[in-house]
Amino acid sequence: MQSKFLLMGATLACLPYAHGLIRFGCSQLVTERFDPLVTPGEVSPHVHQIVGGNAFNLTMHPDNDLPALSTCTTCRFVEDKSNYWTAALYFHHPNGSFIRVPQMANHNTGPGLQSGGMTIYYFQPNGGIPFTVFPKGFRMIVGNPMRRSNDINPTDTAAKATTFRCFEGDDPGSTIVPGTFPPDTFEFPKTPCDAGIRSNIYFPQCWDGVNVDSPDHSSHVAHPVGGFFNTPCPPSHPVRIPLLFIEINWDTRPFNDLSLWPKDGQPFVFAMGDPTGYGQHADYVFGWEGDSLQRAMDVCTGGTGIPWHCPVLTIQDTEDMNNCRQPEKVDEVVDGAYIDKLPGCNPLQRGPAQATMVPNCDAPSTTVDAPVPTEPPAAVNPPWVVCNDGSNTTPLPINPYCSEYPLLTRAPQTQPAVPTATVAGV
Ligand SMILES: *[C@@H]1O[C@H](CO)[C@@H](O)[C@H](O)[C@H]1NC(C)=O
Ligand SMILES: *[C@@H]1O[C@H](CO)[C@@H](O)[C@H](O)[C@H]1NC(C)=O
After folding, report:
1. pTM above the 0.85 mark?
2. Nearest C-alpha to atom 3 of ligand 1 is from which residue?
3. Ligand 2 site-directed mutation target among 255, 259, 338, most atoms within 8 Å of CB
4. What is the pLDDT of residues 156-168, one digit of tens each?
5. Any residues with Cβ below 6 Å from ligand 2, and which?
6. 3-state SS of the chain?
């Protein structure tokens, strides 16, 4: 049993195509309608869940020195003052109301349970392919919030950039690379997933070598040709950058009662009114301190994906990750309670045509000053081990902190309570 858990924790690392990588959890910084890349200076159209350094802001100029402006980060490695964000996920109740689906810690990201957030991977390219880490000011987006159908040529690597995995029991399909069909799907899973749903997101790993950004925040980068691993960059984007890959685990367990599901589909919707899943997208603003990411890429090639195995970076404990927070600055409820519509103006648009913006949106468009929240950050206990204790058939160094958190290393065997009571309210 234990070796199975460990394999899951080092999901990609144990496989023949494995590359060197760093892998780490980041807790939630804030959940709000901010998107400094797409709508700088304005409240954004839909709700995002944001992790990383606390210099995150409504506007983030590429000249901003994020390590200098941040006083903390929600990520395990304190050198990482980057920001990463994706759309929030909501459950659509048959009575028409919505409630945000909590995120939960991934396999072997502990000790301690991160509050919400995501898991971040940076892979070095394999086989000695030369690469460069992201320059200061670099940012990019993958995916398109308006997308509602499988409209990318399946031979394009981009077609598999965003996918979902349905977790059955405690087994996420440990040896299967994310974006493999089956078990993964392009759309939200169509049947209840008894241990939650994971979103898998591959960012582009080829760069034009010149521009830290572009008007659409994606044309300065591209996916390699023929898949994500061991594949060449296109001539248009010849400079290899690390493969940034993120995973988000949603605790859908409180919402798996089929009597609450629509007869003709599934009940989860992204914050932009997307009930399909094709609109999944993610934003990245590079903000590592100095040359810390380069040093990690140079040295941490072991491929275990356990943060404690990358000695050139500094680790903080889960409590410090969870306590790095920002207040929500848009005066509206986005989380922790049923709401009668998705925040912003986001009616459900099922496609297959691209979604369109609602004109003359009357949702709140200004920000307020709010204090940093002081109530303890909420964390969901997932149905899997979050602490790597190193007991594997191929032994890894034992994580010395694991035994200090015995209550957090295994989930309780009971089912979580009803939706209203369990949502990680912030
Ligand atoms: C965000 O930007 C505003 C306006 O420039 C500034 O006053 C504020 O200090 C910034 N917040 C953070 C957390 O950097
Ligand atoms: C829908 O059901 C939820 C859960 O019982 C409840 O909190 C919410 O108020 C209901 N919404 C409406 C419009 O009745």
Report:
1. yes
2. 57
3. 338
4. 999 999 999 999 8
5. 93, 95-97, 338, 340, 420
6. CHHHHHHHHCCCCCCCCCCCEEEEEECEEEEECCCCCCCCCCCCCCCEEEEEECCCCCCCCCCCCHHHHCCCECECECCECCEEEEECEEEECCCCCEEECCEECCCCCCCCCCCCCEEEEEECCCCCCCCCCCCCCCEEEEECCCCCCCCCCCCCHHHHCEEEEECECCECCCCCCCCCCCCCECCCCCCCCCCCEEEEEECCCEECCCCCCCCCCCCCEECCCCCCCCCCCCCCCCEECCEEEEEEEECCHHHCCHHHCCCCCCCEEECCCECCCCCCEEEEECCECCCHHHHHHHHCCCCCCCHHHCCCCCECCHHHHHHCCCCCCECCCCCCCCECCCCCCCCCCCCCCCCCCCCCCCCCCCECCCCCCCCCCCCCCCCCCCCCCCCCCCCCCCCCCHHHCHHHCCCCCCCCCCHHHHCCCC
